[in-house]
Backbone:
């Protein structure tokens, strides 16, 4: 499996990540069920698969193959898990205090906080699990193509059948994001290999074809809005996301540049923005403002999220005179 060696900063990658973080914030801000609200339904159709595919594409395969599991875990502790730990303690601490005041505190509840972190926080520990699983595949010399096909099949099963229709063994396994989203991580990593060259050449030479496929799949997926699953809906969801990952990553890496737009800066600082953008919604929903005064909720949450983003950008990693401890706890190590 090959890996890019150049140290060029691709503004397109930063910008793509920035737009995805904006979509994450918008998807979390909008009220209503994902399967009933067209805005949330549309965003959730592709934003996490694309974000995960991009993450897989950016993985340093050579370093991962050469490192021990302990060294990899230590590296990701400093890169993402330490900042995650502070956010986790903040959200979980408030939930635990609230449960204690209401007399709901129990060992089972505390265990659930560990197994299922609050709302958006699932992504960071799951990312580390994907990295370790991918490292295991590399060390065991398991073909990336075989692994990709296997996990794509699991994603298709998850998206095609309701849990009551899945096999008894698969249902509890596929209920976890770590399983059915792993295919997109593997697909992103596969795009860095020589085996993906034909597909990427096809996409770059005949961009109208993937655009038609994306448009058609997106239309079919939107027409079938709702929680109901089907093989057709699963297929168009999978094709939509694989095509988007390929097309947008190819477009992003074609733009090595020193340009410093607000979106690319958001992308460079995506970790702290991702971890802390939910604070306004967390507080407002805790007081049921989203139900009693939805307009107040939207106004206060929107302004607060913008202020959080501006604060993170002002504290951007590596600024002269900055405390390195702040960098590590907020942004993680490079």
Residues:
């Amino acid at each position: 499996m090959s890996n890019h060696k150049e140290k060029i900063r691709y503004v397109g990658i930063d910008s793509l990540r920035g737009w995805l973080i904006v979509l994450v914030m918008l998807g979390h801000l909008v009220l209503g069920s994902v399967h009933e609200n067209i805005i949330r339904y549309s965003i959730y159709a592709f934003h996490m698969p694309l974000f995960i595919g991009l993450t897989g594409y950016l993985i340093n395969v050579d370093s991962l193959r050469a490192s021990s599991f302990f060294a990899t875990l230590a590296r990701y502790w400093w890169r993402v898990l330490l900042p995650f730990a502070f956010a986790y303690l903040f959200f979980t601490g408030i939930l635990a205090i609230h449960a204690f005041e209401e007399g709901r505190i129990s060992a089972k509840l505390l265990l659930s906080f560990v197994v299922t972190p609050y709302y958006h926080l699932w992504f960071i520990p799951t990312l580390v699990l994907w990295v370790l699983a991918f490292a295991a595949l590399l060390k065991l010399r398991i073909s990336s193509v075989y692994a990709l096909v296997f996990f794509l099949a699991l994603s298709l099963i998850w998206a095609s059948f309701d849990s009551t229709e899945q096999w008894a063994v698969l249902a509890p396994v596929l209920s976890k994001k770590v399983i059915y989203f792993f295919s997109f991580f593997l697909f992103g990593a596969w795009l860095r290999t020589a085996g993906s060259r034909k597909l990427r050449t096809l996409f770059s030479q005949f961009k109208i074809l993937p655009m038609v496929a994306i448009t058609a799949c997106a239309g079919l997926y939107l027409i079938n809005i709702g929680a109901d699953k089907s093989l057709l809906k699963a297929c168009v969801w999978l094709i939509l996301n694989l095509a988007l990952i390929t097309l947008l990553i190819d477009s992003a890496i074609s733009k090595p540049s020193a340009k410093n737009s607000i979106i690319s800066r958001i992308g460079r600082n995506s970790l702290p923005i991702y971890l802390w953008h939910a604070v306004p919604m967390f507080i407002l929903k805790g007081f049921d403002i989203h139900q009693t005064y939805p307009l107040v909720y939207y106004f206060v949450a929107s302004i607060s999220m913008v202020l959080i983003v501006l604060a993170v950008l002002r504290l951007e990693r590596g600024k002269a005179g900055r405390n390195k401890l702040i960098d590590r706890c907020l942004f993680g190590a490079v």
Residues 69-101 form the longest helix (33 residues).
